[in-house]
Amino acid sequence: MRRLELIALPGLPMVAAGDDLAALIEAGLARAGLALVEGDVLVLAQKIVSKAEGRSVALADVQPTPEAEALAARTGKDPRFVQLVLAESQRVVRARPGLLIVQHRLGFVSANAGIDQSNLGQEGHALLLPRDPDGSAAALAARFGCPVVISDSFGRAWRRGTVGVAIGAAGLPALWDLRGRPDLFGRTLQVSISGFADEIAASASLLQGQGAEAQPVVLVRGLAWDAPPNPAAELIRPESEDLFR
Amino acid sequence: MRRLELIALPGLPMVAAGDDLAALIEAGLARAGLALVEGDVLVLAQKIVSKAEGRSVALADVQPTPEAEALAARTGKDPRFVQLVLAESQRVVRARPGLLIVQHRLGFVSANAGIDQSNLGQEGHALLLPRDPDGSAAALAARFGCPVVISDSFGRAWRRGTVGVAIGAAGLPALWDLRGRPDLFGRTLQVSISGFADEIAASASLLQGQGAEAQPVVLVRGLAWDAPPNPAAELIRPESEDLFR
């Protein structure tokens, strides 16, 4: 029987700027008696990566531009927070009272450029996404000797509710092209490019939780793939080929 | 440690119209020595539900309308196939050579209204989505005595690659509203409506596969939730509140 096991790493301490995140996680794995084996993938919630990388910003240090002030008035958000969102974004997709959807400089489309004020433990601070999530994943994967996915929760077009997605990946095909393979009956598969790392992030999200029980690190055991690795940047759909909007 | 286990049910026979799908799956569970326990969720690929419900259509029996003929010319698809897509849809979102994105009568936005010609085993046939996937899930959940998710793979706006999504659900909150709960630091969560059934479908998709190894039934063990059940229809985002397009 093919099985997949997901294990939420217990007892990880609060992560602070400058922490050696890989060392913290390795210690957590050792305490839990978990030794990494072939095929294991570690999924890390974006928040702990961002915190370790010192991506927390004090709002008091932010000087909003007039553009940010105007958008803050439209959305009812703190102008300094909106300034951070704009500085991280290439364009505003939609703005409405209470909601600001942007395209992040790295291409992700999400609320507030992925910048978060919850689960932060520092009043008056906001936490930006890692500067280079694929680079962060690659560095962590090299330390662990296993593939790494950095996950976040994004809202979506057409469908309600947030789902886990991959904003960084290393050591596995974030986008897995299965085109040209035969289906069960020898016919070529029709739709066959899998958002593999997004599905991994979504599965981990079932354990990571979004509330008080948040578990930022999930070990996924039992995955199999047979395509070369590519980064989460491959998951960004170029506008020219986006027919789903 | 919080764990989640996913088990692909082995040895399920090819499903045909009129088959008692619940009985086939129960027999498969028994053969595999798997007894359902509290918290178990069964994820069924849409194809086997559609097949059991007799949703396979012979293209030879389809008479395309002039609208379907025109759209077939634009997309390079079989006019009879396009006719089936249109009959299942409320509107065409985008059409281009090789691609036809529509909004299904039930609200899902996907390629070809979820109608598939691969993995079908019947040349010249196409397989429609179940007539009422939430109803199908409810009937199956009643038989199994456990929650059921009916999954499919959809493309997405903004992101490349398909991911597993829930087109039917029963016995669990397909959309799980966590708003108002405290985060780790007692602050109210910001983004906190989870596409729970979509994440379950995405996790199962990691085992279901899309190629020759397709495993249409996945048992998910270890999930926890504390909200009342709602159907997959709740995952459809009303156009008026869709800021992600």
From TrEMBL, chains A, B:
Domain Coenzyme F420:L-glutamate ligase-like, first and last residues per copy:
12-222
InterPro entries in the record, alphabetically?
F420-0_g-glutamyl_ligase, F420-0_gamma-glut_ligase-dom
Extract the Gene3D superfamilies matched here.
Answer: CofE-like (3.30.1330.100), CofE-like domain (3.90.1660.10)
Q: What is its EC number?
A: 6.3.2.31
Q: Does the keyword Transport apply?
A: no
Alphabetized NCBIfam families for the sequence: F420_cofE
Protein's name in the database: Coenzyme F420-0:L-glutamate ligase
